[in-house]
Amino acid sequence: MHPSQSSPGGLWAAYAETMAHPTPDPIAPGQESVWDYPRPPRVERVARRVRIVLGGEVIVDTDDVVRVLETSHPPVYYLPISAFAEGSLTDAAGSSFCEFKGGARYLDVHGGGQARPRTAWNYPDPSPGFEVLADRVAVYPAPMDACTIDGVEVTPQPGTFYGGWVTPDIAGPFKGAPGSMGW
Fold it and tell me: What is the reported pTM?
């Protein structure tokens, strides 16, 4: 039987659900919707303070912040490598490729006697338009003790692949949640 002929609960329905775009959440005052973010993504400087704690130690506290905005994703924050505490970033195995930003390398994050393997990444030679990311690092928030923006603790983007930071000033729904593969 062809998937289009299967029952409503069959393979075709499951496929169609993963490909359907969701209805954006209502936007409250002071919020922006991730559904208004562009594709390809945009990189922008922001006047925000980011702080990351691991093992009870502040490993970065900076207001030199850029964020990458992409449709359906919470922002990913990129911080200067030089702002991280000495020894808190070490090279890790593996790499990946973003169709927009280019080749990424992975980093282990260390703090307070703890290590979190492959929980940060950097684009050492980014694609045109993303050059500002060359000396910056993004960090997955879930494995850290805390990641804050202007003193507000962030929630990790759903799923385990994407590294977006969810804050009260953005509205979803966000890619990475179950059923969002085709967004």
Answer: 0.88
